[in-house]
Amino acid sequence: MTTPVFCTIVPPHVLDKLAQAEDPALAGPARRTLQRDAYERTQRRLTTVIGAPAVAPLAPAGKPHRTVYDARHGTDLPGRKVRGEGDEPGKDATVNRAYAGLGATFELFLKAYARDSIDGSGLPLNATVHYDRDYNNAFWNGEQMVFGDGDGEIFLDFTIPIDVIGHELAHGVTQYTANLTYFGQPGALNESMSDVFGALIKQYTLGQTAAEADWLIGAGLLAPRVTGKALRSMKEPGTAYDDDVLGKDPQPATMDDYVRTGRDNGGVHINSGIPNHAFYLAATALGGHAWERAGQVWYDVLTGGELKQDAVFTDFATLTVQAARARYGDGEELDAVSKAWEQVGVRTL
């Protein structure tokens, strides 16, 4: 039994800060986004209680089944169908980006890990664009992707960074596999898995090696007036933005700076910086394409059946060491993974 959770790309602490801005052009959209997120989160809980609706017929094995809908700035989901699988691109660049991002995510999981869609059984991939007005977020609600257009002041269109699309869909992969609890360290691991696979989808699409990649999550999402380059940095957590309106990126890179908070489900978007950084260190130490060896180890742990729903960082780190040894033996992969966790201050048992 999977428990779908409502996961957004922009953390609540960022929107909280924006909602306090003196400029109503900044505060208004942030407040409305927070209200809409709270509503959708409640809907998600209700669906979990009463059961999700039946899913459409599955696609042929190994082929994506994508549908993009247009909410036309409303909030009824999924909205009007605007592009189906195999349809030619239309004039709406947002629709085309969403369609391409769904395809890129499907392709990475299929080609790199032989996984047929999010659930491993050809689950149709649905996305809704142009959700609400000035909506400053994108989310996975347990059944589909939803993208806002941003307010144009702080955030641009949420389909622009392909890793945002990959991040949200990867929450679906976690939902159908380890189903990590969305609170505290298990929640931070849940968020980190999405950042890891979001980054890998971007690197796979661009054909980048670990050394060539920027390791940023959400690059291209921040509007020109914002002092920052992305939502998060896996290479240097805590450096993605430092803005008079957004505040400073609060992510720690090591356990020395672990943030204890009751907000944001116990800091799931904040402390994810630690496992994110561990993955970056392991991937860059190994070199080459990060989805091949480091990504394979992380995927093995996520889908292997040993990762408990309430796993903490030490549990996850220990399993990655075991997975590296099981797949690659006592070689450089094991060394890179072990050292990465050591560098971020997470013990392996």
Feature tags:
single chain; six-stranded mixed sheet; alpha+beta; two-stranded antiparallel sheet; globular; 349 residues
Gap between N and C termini: 29 Å
Task: Bin the helical content.
Answer: 40-55%
Q: Helix-strand pattern, N to C?
A: EHHEEHEEEHHEEEEHHHHH
How many beta-strand elements?
Answer: 10
Structural class: alpha+beta
Number of helices: 10
How do the strands of the widest beta sheet line up side by side? 1-5-6-4-2-3
Nearest-integer average pLDDT: 93
User: What portion of the residues fall into strands of 2 or more residues?
Assistant: 5-15%
Anisotropy-based shape: globular
How would you classify the quaternary structure? single chain
Biggest sheet statistics? 6 strands, mixed
Low-confidence parts lasting 5 or more residues at pLDDT below 50? 48-54
Radius of gyration: 19 Å
Model description:
The chain is an alpha+beta fold and about 350 residues long. It has ten helices and ten strands. A six-stranded mixed beta sheet has the order 1-5-6-4-2-3, covered by helices on one side. A two-stranded antiparallel ribbon has the order 7-8. Strands 9-10 form a two-stranded antiparallel sheet. A hairpin with a 4-residue loop joins strand 5 and strand 6. Helix 9 runs antiparallel to helix 10. The longest helix is centred in the N-terminal third of the chain and has 27 residues. The chain is globular, with a radius of gyration of 19 Å. About 0% of the residues have low confidence.
Condensed summary:
The chain is an alpha+beta fold and 349 residues long.
